[in-house]
Amino acid sequence: MSQVKECWNCRFYRAYYKKGFCTFVKLKVGWCGMKHTSIEDNHNTCGRWDKIVRIPELRKTVALKKLNQSVDILCEIKQILLEDQEESRSYGCNAQTQTIKE
């Protein structure tokens, strides 16, 4: 399978976006990071074209690591809130018990 050697499919190409209503619209113009110039048509090609290297496993690993960190932080927050709730209940029960005894 041959790759399309056009700017839109080059690792140095970065598309420009325009702000639309509740979204961003990808334009057919962009920036070449190799030549440091604007690209007027993303279907152009040049001799500096290089294929995009995709590393899905690395992305999944990084995403999973960040997700695990977020879950750990949420568990810590949950534990703090639960302990605070238990303290509030115990203070409430003691206050009621003392009021009833008096």
Entry summary:
The protein is of the alpha+beta class. The chain has one helix and three strands; from the N terminus they run E-E-E-H. It has a three-stranded antiparallel sheet, with no helix packed on it.
Task: Please tell me about this protein's structure.
This protein has 1 helix and 3 strands; from the N terminus they run βββα. The protein has a 3-stranded antiparallel sheet with strand order 1-2-3, with no helix packed on it. The chain has one helix at residues 56-101; strands at 13-20, 23-32, 37-39. The protein is elongated. The mean pLDDT is 86. By secondary structure, it is of the alpha+beta class.
